[in-house]
Write a structure and sequence with these properties.
The structure holds two protein chains of two kinds. Helix content of chain A is 55%, strand content 0%. Chain A contains six helices and no strands. Chain A has helices at residues 2-16, 31-39, 43-55, 65-78, 80-94, 98-108. In chain A, helix 2 crosses helix 5 (80-94) and helix 3 (43-55) packs across helix 5 (80-94). The longest helix of chain A is centred in the first third of the chain and has 15 residues, at 2-16. The mean pLDDT of chain A is 91. In chain B, strands 1, 2, 5, 6, 7, 8 and 16 form a seven-stranded mixed beta sheet that branches. Chain B starts with a strand and ends with a helix. By secondary structure, chain B is of the alpha/beta class. The relative contact order of chain B is 0.20. The radius of gyration of chain B is 22 Å and the shape is globular. Chain B is built from twelve helices and 16 strands. In chain B, a hairpin with a 5-residue loop joins strand 7 (247-253) and strand 8. Helices cover 24% and strands 18% of the residues of chain B. The chains are: A mainly alpha, B alpha/beta. Chains A and B meet through helix 5 and helix 6 of A and helix 2, helix 6, strand 4, helix 9 and helix 10 of B.
């Protein structure tokens, strides 16, 4: 059953987050496996995936990309809450993957690391930029 | 003899400040908190899935987080969803540290503009307590802002500006609009032995460096050293009332599920603008059949949030690549009364917020990025190349916006859940339109290629106010000018519930000041 789900999830990811010349396809990252891990603990996610399996064509996995996209669009319109739940998790799994973080470093110089422990290097506040119109400080 | 002189319910901002002050005077305080301590290592801002955590098990929404100490909040009839944190530190665990004070006119909007009600106190009366809270908490900033009353130098210099802020400042200058570096309860330098901020931008997850001035790091350690007893995992479900109409203590459920009783000479409610009316409404008795301290019928009514809108500027160049930063400057250009407008009161602009990759993809401050073949192109246009102006609107009080007890849904201890009814009024909608138009102007001046408007951010209901309002008239308010309940002379309410108006700024500095002022009054009354 798990392998069947994994094949289905991978097919979903290929349509939701396909690759291009700059970005890895979600199906080529660890995102589908990460998604599967979440199914075990997130009951609303599991229910949403069940809805997707019920609503999408039985042969969804073997459809070509264009046909899958059409089917997913219909699912999105018919059951927006379930669709949104799946997309949120798919994006969540994708935007923590090391391959994706590496791509972000090249994109705009994002560190690709969690906020801590390194933080960000920002110069101290420059008092010279304060507006000229000021009032005096009160004696404390 | 009572177990304590004062029983405090809730260990967030107001409960911490009041306990701290009372403990300095040698008063025996017991504080009951349904949540637990948060250790810096508990905060997931160092994990690869930090953004996902922020949207699920470490969310500011109790309905998303669903930790054992949380209670469900029924919010399907509210256009703004309440946010809170249940634990030692309360909302200051998950706040940004943004620390603006109310303006003097915020306390007298009836007199100034003919709307709402005036508070029974003034800014000047609160000012010494604002100053005291700033020193204990640790606030970074710079005095001299011409849009607010003269004040003492801040304990630390202003926070460093995130990269996008310079772009925004240039635009404010060119428009001739007010701006000023925001007061922040974050350490721009080492302060009281706590580390300086390293600008990670994840303040709203809690601070692993203890560089943010949460009350769990500032007020609580000294309060505990002075002898205050803080019991965590203690969920209060009823305030006890004696035969004389005075409150006598509280019943709570402890971590093991057993019911416990604490007696006290006075009870102080500090459980936030939803938790406090919930508890009052649940504390029914023969003497108080409609809920404790509810002779006016106003407990739970007049709920105020700050309607939050955002306008995101999208640039065709890098704006800020840090992938996460809170606001660092504010503008009071449109704050308070403005006679040339078609709405009452005003709003604050603050910015720029920049977002991490997942928040960008999910459209946390605008439209979600499309899925499918267009996704990466759309994402590339936004990530690192956009920033948001946050619009915080003053909310006027309406009795129809309220907290009640749900008839069916209960928390894990069988206590009825609060149900929220809240709708934006016409005044707020006009104010938001005005603010978004001004924000679009500002972004255009800054050189943005386009903007994205979001006229209301639903998941932004951090500021919970007005549900046990303060006033001199017992028929039109729940507590007096000291936070003392009109109907029960030894019951005090010191959280945002007591607010009469919302102003357009974050309430925590004012909550702290009110709590410290009430504590001073309680001390004086014993002498």
């Amino acid at each position: 059953m798990e392998e069947i789900d994994f094949g289905f999830v991978t097919a979903l990811f290929e349509s939701l987050l396909p690759g291009d010349s700059r970005w890895p396809a979600a199906s080529a990252t660890n995102a589908p496996r990460e998604f599967m891990k979440r199914l075990a603990t997130e009951t609303t996610l599991a229910a949403s995936l069940d809805r997707a399996r019920s609503v999408l064509p039985a042969d969804f996995v073997s459809l070509n990309r264009a046909s899958r996209d059409v089917a997913l669009g219909s699912f999105e319109r018919a059951e927006p809450a379930s669709f949104s739940r799946i997309v949120t998790e798919a994006f969540g799994a994708y935007y923590m993957d090391p391959k994706v973080m590496s791509r972000l470093q090249h994109h705009v110089g994002y560190s690709g690391k969690p906020p801590q422990p390194e933080g960000r290097d920002i110069p101290p506040f420059d008092m010279a930029i304060l507006p000229s119109r000021r009032i005096a400080a009160k004696d404390s | 003899m009572s177990d304590a002189s004062v029983l405090v319910i809730g260990a967030g901002a107001s409960g911490a400040a009041l306990s701290w002050r009372l403990s300095q005077a040698g008063i025996k305080v017991i504080c009951l908190e349904q949540g637990e301590w948060v250790r810096p290592d508990d905060i997931p801002s160092d994990q690869p899935d930090w953004e996902r955590a922020r949207m699920s098990w470490w969310s500011p929404s109790p309905n998303a987080r669903r930790l054992p100490q949380d209670y469900p909040v029924i919010d399907d009839e509210s256009s703004i969803k309440p946010l809170m944190f249940n634990g030692v530190g309360g909302g200051t665990i998950m706040w940004s540290g943004f620390h603006p004070r109310f303006h003097p006119d915020d306390f007298r909007i009836r007199s100034v503009e003919g709307v709402g009600d005036d508070w029974p106190l003034t800014y000047d009366e609160l000012e010494p307590y604002y100053d005291l809270a700033d020193r204990v908490l640790g606030v970074s900033g710079v005095a001299g802002d011409p849009s607010v009353p003269m004040r003492a130098e801040r304990p630390m210099p202003p926070m460093a500006l995130n990269r996008g802020a310079r772009t925004l400042i240039d635009a404010f200058e060119r428009k001739g609009w007010h701006w000023w570096p925001a007061d922040m309860a974050r350490n721009s330098t080492v302060y009281e032995g706590r580390a300086a901020c390293n600008h990670c931008g994840a303040c709203e997850m809690g601070c692993r460096r203890s560089a943010k001035g949460g009350v769990e790091l500032s007020f609580w350690p000294e309060a505990l050293a002075n002898g205050t007893e803080l019991r965590t995992g203690a969920r209060v479900f009823e305030i006890l009332v004696g035969g004389d109409g005075r409150v006598a203590g509280a019943l709570y459920i402890d971590r093991s599920g057993a019911t416990q009783r604490v007696t006290a000479d006075a009870v102080v409610l500090a459980a936030n603008g939803i938790g406090t009316p919930r508890l009052l409404l649940h504390s029914r008795s023969a003497q108080f059949p409609d809920g404790l301290a509810n002779g006016s019928g106003l407990v739970g009514k007049n709920l105020m949030f700050h309607p939050i809108a955002i306008v995101t500027g999208v640039f065709d160049r890098t704006f800020d690549p840090t992938g996460g930063a809170g606001v660092s400057i504010l503008s009071n250009e449109f704050y308070g009364a403005g006679w040339d407008r078609d709405f009452a009161r005003g709003y604050m602009l603050a910015g720029p917020r920049v977002h991490g990759p997942l928040a960008t993809a999910l459209g946390a401050w605008g439209q979600p990025v499309r899925w499918g073949a267009q996704h990466h192109e759309d994402f590339d246009e936004l990530f690192g190349r956009s920033g948001s102006l946050v619009i915080s609107c003053e909310d006027l009080a309406h009795e129809s916006n309220c907290v009640t007890l749900d008839a069916h849904v209960k928390d894990s201890n069988g206590i009825p859940a609060p149900r929220i009814a809240y709708a934006l009024d016409d005044n707020s909608q006009k104010m938001i339109r005005h603010a978004m138009d001004r924000s679009n102007e500002l972004w255009a001046t800054a050189g943005a290629a386009r903007t994205i408007e979001r006229s209301l951010v639903a998941q932004a209901g951090f500021h919970l106010m007005g549900t046990a309002r303060m006033g001199d008239d017992p028929s039109r308010s729940v507590v007096d000018r000291w936070g003392r309940a009109h109907d029960a002379p030894n019951l005090f309410i010191i959280d945002g519930s007591a607010f009469v108006t919302s102003a357009a700024v974050n309430p925590t500095p004012t909550i702290l000041a009110l709590a410290l002022r009430t504590a001073g009054h309680m001390i004086a009354a014993r002498q």
